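Journal club prep, shared notes

We agreed each person brings one worked example of a sequence with its structure written out as tokens. Mine is Type IV pilus assembly protein PilM. I'm keeping it raw so we can talk through how to read the token line rather than staring at a rendered picture. Sequence first:
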Amino acid sequence: MPDLKTLFGGAAPPLVGLDISSSGVRLVELTDAGKDGIRLERCASEPLPRGAVADGNVENLDQVVDAVRRLLKKSGTRARNVALGMPPAAVITKKIVLPAGLSEEQLEVQVESEASQYIPFALDEVSLDFDVIGPVANSQDDIEVMLAAARREKVEDRVAVAEASGLKASVMDIESYAARAALDRLVAQMPGAGAGQVVALFQVGATVTQISVMLDGVTVYEREQPFGGNSLTQDIVRAYGLSFEEAEARKKNGDLPAAYQADVLQPFLESAALEVTRAIQFFFTSTPFTKIDQIFLAGGSAMLPGLLDIIANRTRISSAVISPFKGMQLAPGVREQQLRADAPAYLVACGLALRRFG
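Then the structure, token by token:
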């Protein structure tokens, strides 16, 4: 079986989470704080040139490696084992049912046989893995197994980034799974541990918004919409004649003309709110669900001024910007003020770093 257990293999500490997105690379290192839970040892980010990563694909290896090397130096981490994420669109997942009581070797054979039915590529072109979920409800003779497969070249691109940066790729996860792992910690801190609550996560990235809806730890809906913070940056480029890089920098530090908020930012916020309300309506019409109890915003664009308020007002749903580090101890070197501003962008990296404890 090709590369079984390489896609979601177990983690050995110490381990850092490394999120490679279209806008930049982000690193999170967590440690066990004993009775105090988990401690955030360090987190750092480094921007990527436009086009270095596009549609989840590493297009310019050298640029990404250079950014990761700068990131490692900036963070000061000594860990060399790394958990990486694959974009959801690059991974095929399928729940299958197999007979209970099979040995590991028999499971591998059965998974490979089943995989050929669902994967539109030759098996020697994919990295394949599986995880036993547990017994099938009302059938003690069967087990439910999660099958996951990705094109080998996509996996190898990220492994190559790690190796060229002096790191060892110990875990390869799916970015949406990593985000949900980080979210699970926060839902557990809600009243009643979030039991019975329908929670919607909107990860507003540079080019794409990932939507996941969960109930009692189970994902009941997922969707991806081509909308993100780069749209606002392009609006700034057109309005003020700046380069994309300069517009992005000024967007982040607020160095824009007085009319920016009314003329550029507010129309973008209106569009963002419309995207969210449409996504919610599509969720209602395509599933049996008729309510959402809590909206969480994450991603690099989640902290845009006014975004949370307009979404809460338009949806009439309790809404909050997420911090994946809520409830964690902070190491002395972590700058708390900066963390408050940047935390929503670290959701995936934090979820990857949590694999150290998985």
